[in-house]
Amino acid sequence: MTHQNTDDLPLPRAALLTGVGRRRGIGAAIARALAEDGFDLALSYSDDYDRRVNAEPSDVEVLAEELRGLGRRVVLVPGDLSDPAEPPRILGAASAELGRLGALVMCHCESVDSAILDTTVESFDRHYAVNVRASWLLLKAFAEQVEVGDGTPGGAVVALTSDHTAHNLPYGATKGALDRLVLAGTHELADRGIRTNVVNPGPIDTGWMDDAVREAGAAQTPGGRLGAPSTVADLVRFLVSERGGWIRGQLLLSNGGFATPAV
């Protein structure tokens, strides 16, 4: 079954963003962009992840106040996405506060460096639970709150991915699975007018790069510089806009021409 005539219909101006724990992260940049475009926002995050992996606490409360200063409603919905009960709870809490959601942007991830020989089963399973299973459950819960049939404004889903797999095995492998399940949504959820896309932004410095990594990444990019969180946000805000409604079921490389090594 196909869904017709939704391209020009505005989405409900409410969005759930996951993985928005730090103000200098990609999720925070997307939140700022969508707030500027008139979206009320539910921000999901895990302080435990930020402390464990990023070695700093979440500062999403400060971000929320910044966005409220733009006149937007902002609700915070913390949760551990490795728990299968959390994705539907988080989306339900967001829609209970903001009403029917028009967009879901998935920036969350589990990302702990390890390779083929030293990845543990526990680590691999946690990567799969957060990066794949939680993304499926979020997409499912988002779809369930969108009505079926012609005339619905539908919804927009964007997920962030990566092709960095060597020495980051569980992260890269599960991002590959994420791509497939999200892109399937454009076809399986067409009767609800839901469009899904995946964005690969290439290397973005959100605090994890040192000078050597920055220089190496810039040298592999034709423009001689790396992208910023705002460059990712620019594409996402287009994809969830009415003008971006015809872009569906795509894995988009928005990386400035970054040349990914063969390995």
TrEMBL record:
Any Pfam family: adh_short_C2
Q: Gene3D superfamilies attached here?
A: NAD(P)-binding Rossmann-like Domain
Protein family per UniProt: Belongs to the short-chain dehydrogenases/reductases (SDR) family.
Q: Does the keyword Secreted apply?
A: no
**Organism taxonomic ancestry:** Bacteria, Bacillati, Actinomycetota, Actinomycetes, Micrococcales
Question: What keywords were assigned to this record?
Answer: Oxidoreductase
Protein name per UniProt: SDR family oxidoreductase
Q: Which InterPro entries match?
A: NAD(P)-bd_dom_sf, SDR_fam
Segments forming a coiled coil: none
Q: Does the keyword Oxidoreductase apply?
A: yes
